[in-house]
Amino acid sequence: MSHGIAIGKVSVATGVKIPTIRYYEQIGLLPAPPRTEGNRRTYDRKDAERLTFIRHSRELGFEIDQIRTLLDLQDRPDQSCADADTIARARLVEVKDKIASLKALEAELERMVEGCSHGRVESCQVIEILADHGKCKHHQHDA
Amino acid sequence: MSHGIAIGKVSVATGVKIPTIRYYEQIGLLPAPPRTEGNRRTYDRKDAERLTFIRHSRELGFEIDQIRTLLDLQDRPDQSCADADTIARARLVEVKDKIASLKALEAELERMVEGCSHGRVESCQVIEILADHGKCKHHQHDA
DNA sequence: GCTTGCTCCTATAGTGACTGGAGGATGTAC
DNA sequence: GTACATCCTCCAGTCACTATAGGAGCAAGC
C-alpha cells in the first residue's frame, strides 16, 4: 500500500481521536476505508478532509444528524444550500439563547459569591440562594 | 396517612419529574422516604425543599457530585462555607469561559449565514467554512 | 532471527444525568 | 363495581464518545 494513511496519522492530522474515528465509521458518518493485508484501516486525503469537516462542525456544536445532512449536501454541490443555511441559522439561534441563559447564570452566581461573607454555612448566601428559589430571578436553563 | 405528600404532588410542586425523583433516590441524593401500606413513597416538606435545592443547583449547572457536597454543607450549618464558595466560584469561571466560547461560535456562525448567497452548495459559505478550517479563527470549544 | 515497543485490531462496558417503556399493583371518583 | 389516574419495579435507551481487555501486526535494533 504505497500512500494509504494509517489511522494514527489521520488522527494527528485532523485532531480527531482514534476511537472517535472508529466510532464515526461505526455510525456511518465516515465510510469504512480499505484495509491493508494486516487488516489495518488505510485512509486517503479525502477521508482526512471529511474528518476535519466533522470535527469543525462538532466544535460549532452541530449534532451528528445535522452533520450527516451537511455532509450529504457537501457531496452534492449542485443542490441548493438552503438546508445548510437553515441548519446554521437554527444553530445560531440556539447559541444566542444559550449565551443569554448563561449570562443570567453568571449574574446569579456572581450575586452568590459576592454575598458570601466567608463565615458559617448558617449565613451563607451561596447555600441560601440555592435553597430558596424565590430569592432569585433565574427561571430556566438547559445545559 | 394524613400528611404524606405523594410523588406526583412533589413533582408538580418542585418541577422535578417523577422518574428523576426516583433516580435521585437511587443515587442517594434524596433519602428514601417512608412508604404507605400500598408501597407508595410519601414525602414531607423537607424533602420538597431538598428537591427544590437540587433542581435549582442543576439549573445553575452544578454537577451531581457538587450538589452532594452543597447538600452536605446545608445539613451542617455550623461549618465554614468556604467549600460552597469554592464550588460556586469554580462554576462561575466555567460559565464565563463558556460564554466566551459561545460568543466565538456566534461570530463564526454569523459569518457563515451572512455569507450564504442562497445559491448552490458549490458556492455556499456555510459548507465552505465547515470544510476549510483555515478560513476561521475559531480554535476550541467543549460543549 | 529475535525481542522490544509501538501501533493497531475487535468487542464490550462505562460515562452523566436522566428518559422511556413494559407490565403490573393501588387508589379514587362516579 | 368499574373506569381511570397514579403509582410501583426493572430494564433498556439516549448522546457522543471514552476506556478497558486481550490480542495481532509491524519496524528497528541487536
Automatic annotation (TrEMBL), chains A, B:
Any GO MF annotation of the entry: DNA binding
Pfam family, one: MerR-DNA-bind
Segments crossing the lipid bilayer: none
CDD domains the record matches: HTH_CadR-PbrR-like
SMART domains: HTH_MERR
SUPFAM superfamilies: Putative DNA-binding domain (SSF46955)
Annotated HTH merR-type domain residues: 4-73
This protein's name: MerR family transcriptional regulator
Secretion signal, residue range per the UniProt entry: none
Coiled coil: none
InterPro entries for this protein: DNA-bd_dom_put_sf, MerR-type_HTH_dom, MerR_fam, Tscrpt_reg_MerR_DNA-bd
Keywords for the protein's UniProt record, in alphabetical order: DNA-binding, Transcription, Transcription regulation
PANTHER family: HEAVY METAL-DEPENDENT TRANSCRIPTIONAL REGULATOR HI_0293-RELATED (PTHR30204:SF94), REDOX-CYCLING DRUG-SENSING TRANSCRIPTIONAL ACTIVATOR SOXR (PTHR30204)
Keyword Chloroplast: no
